[in-house]
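Notebook B, p. 112. Complex prediction, attempt 2.
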Amino acid sequence: MDELNKQISDLRIGKETALSYLMDQYACALHFFAYKFIKDKQTSSEIVSDAFIKLWERREHFEAIEPIKSFLYLVVKNACLDHLKHSRNKYRYEEANLIELEATDQDILRKIIYTELVELIVYEVKKLPRQQAQVLHLSFMEDKNIQEICDELGTTANTVYFARSKAVATLKKVLAQKKLSLHYLFLLLFFNLPQ
Amino acid sequence: MDGELTPEERIVLEQWRRETPENEAFFKTLTEGDEIFEDGLSWIQLEQEEGEDWLRRLKERTLKRASTAADRGERSRRLYFIYFAAAAVLLIAGFFGYFQLSAPTVGEKEVSLSSIQAGTNKAKLVLSDGKEINLRSDKDGIILDNQLTYADGTPLLVIDKNRISHIKATIHVPKGGKYKVTLSDGSKVWLNAQSTLVYPLQFDNRNRKVTLEGEAYFEVASVTDENQVIPFEVICSNQKILVTGTAFNVSAYADDIRTITTLVEGSVSIESGHQKVRLMPNQQVISTTTGNIIKKEVDVQPFVAWKDNKFLFHETELRDLMKSISRWYAIDVSYQDKISPTYFYGEIDRDKNLAEVLRIIEKSGVKFKLQNSGKTSNLIIIKE
């Protein structure tokens, strides 16, 4: 934690190395978080970059990592809503009319915890034994979306979904064997939530 | 990393799950659903699609933007200590407030939020010759055009023509007030709650100088004398703003260590300490009592919306938001708990009463209690 605290005070005095460090830590997760929302890679990257610029502009306000994370996720989430508002889903947005957009502390914290858990899963998948990893890889990681896989394999979306759920089951089993998920969940929950 | 929960950890977790239905639902999402695994796989897919150097490219681009994000004259070290000091004061205030609360004094009672009405046109004009006038609240502004009148032409005060140029005027707008002033050169100034503007009733031909404490929106008329542009200057606590025909907002409250100038149109240059900054439209400069200057690009709307009688929040921190509320509804605000930074987005009409405004803010998980002690009402902010 010392490293983190040092980076946060560096951030406050305007050292760009600290900004770089925080991007190493959080940019990928934020990128996925945004992408899940808006399904647009280019825009997601821009939104993440913008969020770090905003953090930089307000750097003197932050003394701990939790508010920094909350700020980044909140800014990204809001930028995504803005993006959706300006593109297609207008009707979906109107009822969420203005103030706060359900951005309670708790809500944004849940999103952070969720994303961090997904990150953990990603980390574990990358460590999977070759054979199991191949199952996953074949089903949907060949740089293709579901439609493309369907086309390539000459099969239906159902089959692909089935393969996907099998892969998920494999993954769950692996994680269960390691008893990782619950313990990690515990750490995430109680080191993130305000007491 | 491996390993089971200890019995104590298990109890903590179980308790947390039972606290609210949301906690339980969230726990189930994390442990039972497939969503999280599917997301893990989509994440990897996204990474592969973006390529290995995605992070490197993002960092390069962002760091470049950060270093050109125009922070000159950076001496944040001092600000750093100021913030620590501020945090300590806040904590102490919170602590103190807590004990006051637990032993309410006689005469303190809870009052209804909806009884607190929005601010209105309210101001006092004080002239350097000793005259004091409470300005009418059915008028929204005053103007000097040969004589001093209300904006709609209703006579206000007759002053001897020869003496006008020697008189300084001070307009005090109290908490819960606003007013508009048209200066002798045609420049317009909107004054927000709890603000004071000092200006000569009649500018001379060489310079135009006004002093501001609080918040004002300026539309400065461009005036030339024999082809020379006559400068317009706004002086406030940490900034001197030099203007040539332009529209901008200045927030320079005594209870805020920051003076914030936001440029809407034209151009201004700002002197703060020994430093000089030039602003382009949609830029903002923040200077602090410690001599720091930060310049940044902003969406100007949230900073000037008050002029059109709106609160417009965009990444506005709770404490900044409550300062606006406190000034406009003429109430005091205090904090019962240490409340972590909460940011707000949204738009609310300023003519709504306090209850209506707080109802919207409450949706973000902040709770309020209003107490009446003597003349003023105190709004206490309670953690959810």
